[in-house]
Amino acid sequence: MADFFNTGLTQQQFLDEYWQKKPLLIRQAFTDFESPISPDDLAGLACEADIESRLIEENGSDGSWQVSHGPLSDDDFNRLPKTHWTMLVQDVDKHLPELQYLLDPFRFIPDWRRDDLMISYATEHGTVGPHTDGYDVFLLQAMGTRNWKVGGQPIHNPELIDGLDVQILAEFDTAQEWDLQAGDMLYLPPHFAHHGVARTDCMTFSFGFRAPSQTDVLDSVINLLLEKELAAGRYADADLVASAQPHQIDKSAVERLKQLLHNTIEQAEPILAEALGKFVTETKSSLASLSEETWTDLATIEELDESFTTGGELARSLYHRFAWSIEANVGMLFMAGEAYELDEEAYEFLPLLAENSVITLADWQRIKTSSQSAELLCQLISEGGWYWAD
Ligand code: SIN
Ligand code: CO
Q1: Which of 222, 285, 304, 307 shows a CA-CA span of 20 to 30 A to 203?
Q2: For position 286, what pLDDT does the model report?
Q3: Could you tell me the distance, in angstroms and rounded to a whole number, from the CA of residue 20 to the centre of ligand 1?
Q4: CB 43 within 8 Å of CB 71
Q5: How confident is the model at residue 249 (pLDDT cuts 50, 70, 90)?
Q6: pLDDT tens digit string along 162-188?
Q7: What is the residue with the minimal CA distance to atom 4 of ligand 1?
Q8: Mean of the pLDDT values across residues 122-131?
Q9: Does residue 144 have its Cβ closer than 6 Å to ligand 1?
């Protein structure tokens, strides 16, 4: 089993002992790490209209913990003091495909759990304040030195300082503290309080893994049950006992409701993978317009043949989320919140269609041995999930 960032732990040992359980500091997780992007490159991204970014100033002209949402402008940068501010840019893994290699060591974690690579640049003393996130996060120090203080256990409903645009904990108790240098990385499970302060100008790469919320996945299950006209039963009370208080919802009524919910879960079993796949591949609203840039007309298999044989290669859009499943003998590919069902002869192409970064002529020759897979690829191209690389 592969080693986990030179820690002496295997990936499975990390998952068993730390993942979603406790923080782990990994010295030189990326040895001799040099940031592949500079603070100026990051500032350039923060000035672009379709890219989500923020500037957080501890002592802003409009008050403490001032947040300015991107796109940022020269005016924003010109008015900044020398210290005490942080610029953060979301989804850099998608905006800069050349950074995808950084995700490779994390691929033992399901890709559909990953949200994004957020990159921050902070001047000396820059911090976003003590806070918690609902995410598993790997905080890689990419440049300079940052001091991290971490709480001792997860806090689920923390008390926040009122009236701020940033969520800052009203109280923070440090259980562990470290200085991180370039290449060091800190893993934090969800809800662990953390407070990172730049000791020097620094950049931090946050690899964030989101977990869908209970109510969000339930909503997805219910929508699919409605769409497929499943679980159409009703609350049943054949065991009703005569009552003198006809307006009361009594204990038995609540028990019957619980039973109904249990039955619903059982009836939903065949559609659970589909409900999860659709939900976790929904396009982030902040990336919707960029994901539409690759949409195109529906091409035929013959047209694809022509493009591949004349040297074309397809690239997978990083603005689209992909997943696949084979559950109870039903194969499905999920992309951007849609599910595509496939027959058994096409199962072997699911990883190729949903995981590869490119599709070459050789891949296409395999894919088109299954007409269903070839047609699906035509469809995915029209929806921008795959596009012709230059
Ligand atoms: C930062 O990079 O300043 C903040 C990262 C985090 O706390 O999640
Ligand atoms: Co955080």
Answers
A1: 285
A2: 97
A3: 18
A4: no
A5: very high
A6: 989 899 999 999 999 999 999 999 999
A7: 128
A8: 97
A9: no
pLDDT of residue 389: 95
Cα(390)–Cα(377) distance, integer angstroms: 18
Secondary structure in 3-state letters for the chain: CCECCCCCCEHHHHHHHCCCCCCEEECCCCCCCCCCCCHHHHHHHHCCCCCCEEEEEEEECCEEEEEEECCCCHHHHHCCCCCCEEEEECCHHHHCHHHHHHHHHHCCCCHHHEEEEEEEEECCCCCCCCECCCEEEEEEEEECCEEEEEEEEECCCCCECCCCCCCCECCCCCCEEEEECCCCEEEECCCEEEEEEECCCEEEEEEEEECCCHHHHHHHHHHHHHHCCCCCCCCCCCCCCCCCCCCCCCHHHHHHHHHHHHHHHHHHHHHHHHHHHHHHCCCCHHHHHHHHCCCCCCCCHHHHHHHHHCCCCEEECCCCCEEEEEECCEEEEEECCEEEEECHHHHHHHHHHHHCCEECHHHHHHHCCCHHHHHHHHHHHHCCCEEECC
Tokens 């008050």 correspond to what residue?
63
Which pLDDT does position 1 carry in this prediction?
67
Whole-number Å distance, alpha carbon 22 to ligand 2 midpoint, is: 15
Instruction: Please give the backbone phi and psi of residue 268, each rounded to the nearest 5 degrees, phi first.
Output: -80, -10
CB 194 within 8 A of CB 188: yes
* Residue 148 in tokens: 């991290």
The pLDDT tens digits of the residues spanning 306-355 come to: 999 999 999 999 999 999 999 988 999 999 999 999 999 999 999 999 99
The CB density around residue 366, as the number of other CB atoms within 10 Å, is 14
Of all protein residues, the one whose alpha carbon is nearest to atom 5 of ligand 1 is 206
Residue type, 44: G
Q: Which atom of ligand 1 is nearest to the CA of 118?
A: 2
